[in-house]
Amino acid sequence: MKSFTANSSIAELEKAIGQHAIYRFALNEREPQRTLYLALPDLAFEKLFRDPVLARLRAHLAMKLIVVPTRLHKEMSWIE
Predict the structure, then answer these.
(1) CATH T-level assignment (fold) for domain 9-79
(2) What gap in Å lies between CA 66 and CA 62, rounded to an integer?
(3) What is the domain partition of the chain in residue ranges?
(4) Dist. CA 79–CA 7, nearest whole Å
(5) pTM of the entire predicted model
(6) Amino acid 12: pLDDT
(7) Which of 62, 64, 60 is nearest to 78 (CA)?
(8) 73 with 32: CB under 8 angstroms?
(9) Which has the higher per-residue pLDDT, 59 or 77?
(10) Exposed e or buried b for every residue in 20-58, given b needs 16+ CB within 10 A?
(11) CB atoms within 10 A of CB 4
């Protein structure tokens, strides 16, 4: 799970996108039936992917997400 705790959320997103691309390629080469998800805290999701441009970027890259709650009594979200 990416924490997105650095001062720059965009810099963390750039790093996460690069890692995700490498992992997705490697996973597709070895186990193409498996699906890769990027897990991130709900606060990071709200900060980053509520932005329409970044939401379209995520869709363009076909990044699947698991949004993990950081507050009590919230459910985890799986975003295809």
Answers:
(1) Trna Endonuclease; Chain: A, domain 1 (3.40.1350)
(2) 13
(3) 9-79
(4) 25
(5) 0.74
(6) 86
(7) 64
(8) no
(9) 59
(10) beeebeeeeeeeeeeebebebbbebbeebbeeeeeeeeb
(11) 20
